[in-house]
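Changelog-linked ticket: guanosine-5'-triphosphate example.
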Amino acid sequence: MSPPSRDSTRSINLPSLVPHTSTYRAHKSRSRSPDTPTTPTQSSYFPSVSSSYDEPWNARVAARSPPQPPPFHRHRTASETLSSLLDEETLFNDNPAVLHNKKPNSTDMADPSSMKRKVVIMGSPSVGKTSLTQQYVSPPTYNASYYPTIEDTLHKTVTHNGIQYECEIIDSAGLEEYSLFPGKYGLGVHGYMLVYSITSRQSFEMIPIIHDKILDYAGLEKVPCVVVGQKVDLDGERAVTTAEGEALAKKLSAGFIESSAKDNKNVVRAFDALLVEMQKEYNPAPEKKKASWWSWGAK
Ligand SMILES: Nc1nc2c(ncn2[C@@H]2O[C@H](COP(=O)(O)OP(=O)(O)OP(=O)(O)O)[C@@H](O)[C@H]2O)c(=O)[nH]1
């Protein structure tokens, strides 16, 4: 006897689905009427145990799998996505730059005499991020022991160029080349301090990698940023020249400074440089009036 071909009429005896249950019919009749939601009520989706177990298994499956997905399963339209993003913004009312491409501005101030600034200190492990931050927030503080950071948030109110800033400073965990970028640092942040150690070439090479990750995550072409070459007291062990640091910062359109948390050298200047970068981005000085064409011959 020859084996059954693909087209053979012989088929496996699967039970056929029986969609025409009372639940299914109720759903169909609802979906025909434009005024009624197509989503069956909870009770019709999940009939009570006693009634559902009277029906065959395939009827119960059919009752739970309506042919049309309920509305909350469909893809959101662009305008729905936008309005949900706008809702998200209210979750971060302290952080005006929450949304991608949305810049904070002077109106983001709760108190008009002070501005909130959220900054993240990022870089490779052990470059001195914590030492730098603590030296800035509560000087003089320097601890020669090393305790890897998970994350720490510090606050400091400073006045710079006549403006008072309430700074929230996030001291982040050291990042390695293949570390996942922590998404929370890509949103709602006003500025970044990217720290390397002048004694570590590897930590220097991490700076453009972290910078790229920030831009990718935030969906921006530029973020206010300062590149800091830390541990400048160890000049004898230098692995990165000042010129290289400057050139990299220029390439990233960032500020640049070398500092030593140990000697408390340029620590305040590093944070001031970041305030300047943020100021340039969010509250640029009004452009000087351009000379109009007729003023050329006016002398
Ligand atoms: N010589 C010198 N050592 C420093 C300086 N800043 C920090 N250190 C030392 O470097 C080590 C690491 O410092 P941390 O401030 O913990 O470095 P970190 O970047 O926060 O490290 P992670 O928490 O791993 O990300 C510690 O032993 C510090 O004492 C500095 O300016 N000069």
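Closing comment: Example verified and attached. The first strand starts at residue 114 and ends at 123. The domain at 89-282 is CATH 3.40.50.300 (Rossmann fold).
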